[in-house]
Write a structure and sequence with these properties.
This protein is of the alpha+beta class. About 50% of the residues lie in helices and about 30% in strands.
Length: about 90
């Protein structure tokens, strides 16, 4: 694997523990197998926060990885709202 030299941490604050659980479980499979050999992502849960730690080979790869994960977060949150609205 190439040397990882660009780093970023994104913390997402959520209002409920249930949302944290759903979001973290949905994202975990994506962290097990990297999108490319150029990036690595770790996910942590801290109280009502999801913390995503990105490591990539360059800033372009960093931007792409962050964008991908934030799109997934948005899609998961949208689906969560739909499911909650059906209850």
């Amino acid at each position: 694997m190439p040397l990882l030299k660009a780093h970023a941490t994104v913390q997402i604050n959520l209002k409920s523990s249930a949302k944290v659980k759903v979001l973290s479980q949905a994202l975990k499979p994506e962290t097990r197998i990297p999108l490319t050999a150029k990036s690595k992502v770790k996910i942590k849960v801290e109280d009502k926060n999801i913390v995503l730690q990105f490591e990539t080979v360059d800033t372009s790869s960093l931007r792409a990885a962050i964008s991908s994960y934030l799109r997934w977060v948005k899609a998961i949150e949208d689906m969560y709202r739909v499911v909650e609205g059906l209850k």
